[in-house]
Amino acid sequence: MPAAAADVSGVRFVVQVGAFADAASAQLMRAKAQKLGLKTYTQVTETAAGNRVRVRVGPFATREAAELALAKAKAGGLSAVVLAL
Fold it and tell me: How far apart are CA 17 and CA 56, in angstroms?
């Protein structure tokens, strides 16, 4: 039931596979995720320690879909986490 409620409220989910200070490192991680068949995008965010490039997979309409992508990323050796937007 919570997943259906999330869908109705417009909550979306992403899988974050990394956040990097170095754009080249972010692109390497993005390439690794894409080789696993995952659709990626990057987002630059400002932090107290400077800009970071987030590498994310998604977005997904349900947590279940995000969890499937998370499992695929982890099976490919990537460290990842599901986030709600």
Answer: 6
Question: Which pTM value belongs to this model?
Answer: 0.85
**Residue pLDDT, tens place only, 67-82:** 999 999 999 999 999 9
pLDDT in tens, 17-43: 999 999 999 999 999 999 999 999 999
Count Cα neighbours of 42 within 13 Å in the Cβ-side half-sphere.
Answer: 20
Q: Pick from 34, 79, 40: which is nearest to 59 by CA?
A: 40
Quote the radius of gyration of the chain (alpha carbons, Å): 13
Write the CA distances from 38 to 4, 51, 84, integer angstroms.
24, 24, 18
Nearest partner of 85 among 2, 12, 10, 17, judged by Cα:
12
Measure the CA–CA gap between 20 and 75, rounded to whole angstroms.
Answer: 21
